[in-house]
Design a protein that fits this description.
Blueprint (H helix, E strand, L loop, with lengths): L3 E7 L3 E7 L5 E8 L11 E2 L1 H19 L6 E8 L5 E4 L9 E2 L7 H8 L8 H4 L8 H11 L3 H6 L3 E4 L1 H9 L9 E3 H4 L5 E2 L4 E2 L1 H7 L8 E3 L2 E6 L9 E7 H8 L8 E5 L3 E8 L10 E6 L7 E8 L3 H9 L9 H6 L9 E3 L17 E3 L7 H27 L6 E4 L6 H11 L3 E4 L4 H13 L15 E5 L5 H16 L10
Parallel strand pairs: 1-5, 5-14, 9-12, 15-21, 21-22
Antiparallel strand pairs: 1-2, 2-3, 4-7, 6-8, 10-11, 13-14, 15-16, 16-18, 17-18, 19-20, 22-23
Helix pairs in contact: 9-14, 10-12, 12-13
Length: about 500
């Protein structure tokens, strides 16, 4: 009798396999990083073959380290970095080009041409999304335009596209030997190609962006049995869940009711608000996205505020500037000072996402004086994460009319007490961390387990959610407003940095 549910979490910097028991507790995990490839300024790539190799390795290691047999696992769910585009040969399984990562800005000119006929919100009524380098569709177009012979092969259905969930599932279920070419509504909703109402590919968008329908995966629910694994490490286990990472975190945080929200602190930050079975348009710079779909039930939608660079900024200080050896050390460094010393760091490395959607922006550090030291820079980096989340929360309140009374948080950065306290201070509401902070993997496991009856119903999953810690606001309103006003001023200094001519 299966005792566990498993989740493959294919993230921006690493891949992990996690095993959960019926109570939603972590039984085992293994995790491995993969290379970040930067061919030019603004370009970010991953090697899809390396990612798949790491996926198999972490599955094997997690099973071995816990003594878990494949038969102990009821089902496996997939969650993934969204908007990262892979195009590969259907027959050989070989990628035609590296995966173009969601942070990549090379499609700026493609997006500008699309905006020339209808503006940035040209596709928003259909897709819920602004035209931006963030999304997958323009990345597909770039590969079709820049890799010899690929467009003709794509039109013939010989090469196929997927976000990372599709790449993993295809390989997991057989690859060239009958692998399933599928995605779910949450990932499909991140391409600029899916109609949020029909949950099918929008032909007008395909024509406008220049993507052949023959290369696109079949769109399925987020929780249903798609097929079985065909790799030796997990032979014959149902593959039954598929959610983009932020929707998986929403699900893992059990935000099943309208108005419930979560914020994930990872490479970037992503604040999602459940809006129920109604897709709520945004007038405040957010995006409307599919939240999840369980079997044949109606799709649940969400408003999302996407922030490109948060945890990645800490990695940048570690790897590029060598300010410390490991990411957690930033908290100790930031605590050597009482405040930011007047410094604000706007990490527009990939432009600005929500609520600005400015691909012409680039990062800036403002307010520097001779007084400033490493501690102030470290503190400004952490504060940048909280201020960006505050901007998104304000936009979300404006769009939905729902005022946050608390915020559920998850992801790697929530172990940073200084950041979480500052987040509570600038929001003016309690910030709450669950006992299982890696809710992205948990959400994928939940989706898979529900599909095979390992868990009975969605609402029963609430019983597994346990609070670990909460931070209460301590900052007075005048200090909060003064700091936030300076942050907003700093953001404007990043605009219009990139000229149209690349």
């Amino acid at each position: 009798m299966p005792q566990y549910a498993g989740a493959i979490d294919q993230g921006t910097t690493s891949t992990r396999f996690m095993i959960f028991d019926h109570g939603g507790q972590v039984v085992g995990l293994a995790q491995k990083e993969h290379e970040q490839i930067y061919p030019r300024p603004g370009w970010v790539e991953h090697d899809p073959r390396e990612v798949w190799d790491r996926t198999r390795e972490v599955v094997g290691e997690a099973l071995k380290s816990t003594g878990t047999a494949p038969g102990d696992i009821a089902a496996v769910g997939i969650t993934n970095q969204r908007e990262t585009a892979v195009v590969w040969d259907r027959t050989t399984g070989e990628p035609v080009y590296n995966a173009i990562v969601w942070q990549d800005t090379r499609t700026d000119q493609i997006c500008n041409r699309l905006m020339a006929d209808g503006g940035q919100d040209r596709f928003r009524p259909t897709t819920g999304l602004p035209i931006a380098t963030y999304f997958s569709g323009p990345k597909i177009r770039w590969i079709l335009d820049n890799v010899d012979g690929v467009r003709e092969r794509a039109e013939a259905g010989e090469v196929i596209f997927g976000n990372m969930d599709t790449w993993v599932i295809w390989n997991l279920t057989g690859g060239p030997d009958g692998g399933l070419h599928i995605t779910d509504v949450t990932n499909a909703s991140r391409t600029l190609l899916m109609d949020l109402t029909t949950l099918d590919w929008a032909q007008d968008n395909l024509d406008a962006i220049g993507v052949p329908r023959a290369m696109l995966p079949e769109i399925r629910a987020s929780s249903e049995v798609y097929g079985e694994t065909r790799i030796p490490e997990l032979e014959g286990i149902p593959v039954a869940g598929d959610l983009g990472d932020q929707q998986a975190a929403l699900f893992g945080q059990t935000c099943f009711a309208v108005g419930e929200a979560k914020n994930t602190y990872g490479t970037g930050n992503f604040l999602l608000l459940n809006t129920g079975t109604e897709a709520v348009p945004s007038k405040s710079g957010l995006i409307t996205t599919a939240g999840y779909r369980i079997g044949d039930a109606p799709t649940v939608y969400a408003l999302e505020g996407s922030i490109a660079i948060t945890g990645a900024l800490v990695q940048w200080l570690r790897d590029n500037l060598r300010m410390f050896d490991s990411a957690p050390e930033i908290e100790d460094l930031a605590q050597t000072v009482d405040d930011n010393g007047g410094v604000y760091f706007v990490p527009a490395f990939s432009g600005l996402f929500a609520p600005y959607w400015r691909s012409d922006a680039r990062g800036a550090i403002v307010g520097l004086t001779r007084y400033v030291n490493r501690g102030h820079i470290a503190r400004a980096v952490l504060e940048a994460t909280a201020y960006q989340s505050k901007e998104v929360a304000d936009a979300m309140e404006a769009d939905s009319g729902v005022k946050l009374d608390s915020l559920k948080v998850d992801g790697g950065m929530v172990q940073n007490d200084l950041l979480m306290q500052f987040q509570a201070d600038v929001l003016g509401v309690p910030v709450i961390r669950p006992a299982v902070a890696e809710t992205t993997s948990l959400g994928a496991a939940y989706a898979a387990g529900l599909a095979v009856g390992f868990w009975d119903e969605v609402e029963s999953l609430r019983e597994n959610w346990v609070e670990d810690k909460r931070w209460l606001p301590q900052m007075d309103a005048a200090t909060r407003e003064r700091g936030y006003a300076l942050w907003k001023k700093a953001v404007t200094r990043t605009f219009d940095w990139v000229e149209d001519e690349q």
